[in-house]
Amino acid sequence: MTSPSHSKPAETMSAAVYRRFGPPEVVHVERVVKPSPRPDELLIRVRASTVSIADHRARSRRVPRGLQLLAAAGLGFVRPRHRILGMDAAGVVESVGADVTRFRPGADVLAMLGGAFGGHGEYVCVKQDAAVARKPANLTFDDAVTLVFGGMTARGFLKQARLQSGTSVLVNGASGAVGTAAVQLAKLAGAHVTAVCSGANADLVTSLGADRVIDYTTTDFAAVGQTWDVIVDCVGNAGFRRAGDLVNPGGALLLVVTDLSGLVRARRDSRRSGKTVTANVGPNPPEDLAFLVDLAESGSFRPVVDRAFDLAQIVDAHRYVDGGHKRGNVVLRVSAGADA
Ligand SMILES: NC(=O)c1ccc[n+]([C@@H]2O[C@H](COP(=O)([O-])OP(=O)(O)OC[C@H]3O[C@@H](n4cnc5c(N)ncnc54)[C@H](OP(=O)(O)O)[C@@H]3O)[C@@H](O)[C@H]2O)c1
After folding, report:
1. How many CB atoms lie within 10 A of CB 65?
2. Which atom of ligand 1 is nearest to the CA of 174?
3. pLDDT confidence of 310, banded at 50, 70, 90?
4. pTM of the predicted protein model
5. CA distances (Å), 140 to each of 51, 90, 119, 146, in order?
6. Hey, which of 55, 87, 152, 178 would you mutate to test ligand 1's pocket, going by the most ligand atoms within 8 Å of its Cβ?
7. Do residue 133 and residue 173 come from a single domain?
8. Fewer CB in 10 Å around end: N or C, the chain?
9. Cα–Cα distance measured from residue 67 to residue 56, given in angstroms and rounded to the nearest whole number
């Protein structure tokens, strides 16, 4: 006879889960086991996350040419390695592990979860020394979470270029999550910013600080007869072959997205041209998130929210992001607060 088990049933939470790669419909909300923090982790009750292009890529496995194997190593070969998507989170610290000193329960925080994902569940654990920062006091959770994915990416790349007053910067794909952040950060550093986006987003990028707008639907930025100190490619069509000569001597080509060939050749292109050519965002340190929080709190960095979806609308959110035309960020409201 087996003895009755007296162990407590595992606590559960709601989360958007996917168990196979495919279209938006592979994602659904279900109850899963609530995570519990290790000694060096905090457990965050997630109020908001974003549905980003990274979630689209991880779910659909649509990645730039040649990167399928590399992507599969991180995302899973046959089945998703991380069943809960969401690279970022804004929420409240629920509890902390025994070794955590930086945060206390009850603190409002932002976190970059990166390739570990997990933001599309009601609770997520993150190491205290990861990119976690206090939430800007002046922003809602919905707005604040938009600082993380696009902001950290833009900051990570732009730090690798020497930006100062008068530096000319072209942001290709200026109306997306990364582009809207890059326009703002470059402008704040004193740059003269050219934004490449469709005419419909010209007002948006101008309001974020762009000095000049090139409408990619009517004009090829590579054919306007201008060069720039820094080019930030958030689209994937401004690699070294097309855009290398458009970068001034000693300048930088920041490949936020590129294919395998661009990735492999970046170092060589850099060495041969004497320009910084990089496809590497860098380490995502907590200081970068704190930097963005300070900017947002002082009103110098503006969250750009296209629209917000509730967790129950996760399939619609994925469908929208799949369209490839979101403006800034798509917010996912994961759980309501005690105040709601
Ligand atoms: N390396 C990294 O660590 C890292 C991190 C984050 C993201 N990424 C990559 O960076 C890229 C951008 O990410 P994101 O989050 O900014 O994407 P996103 O928000 O999904 O970008 C959507 C925007 O791209 C614009 N767009 C589409 N085609 C364009 C074109 N040909 N020229 C100019 N703009 C165009 C769209 O504007 P319209 O509606 O006007 O077309 C839309 O506003 C993605 O490929 C992503 O995978 C890389």
Report:
1. 11
2. 34
3. very high
4. 0.96
5. 17, 9, 17, 10
6. 178
7. no
8. N
9. 15
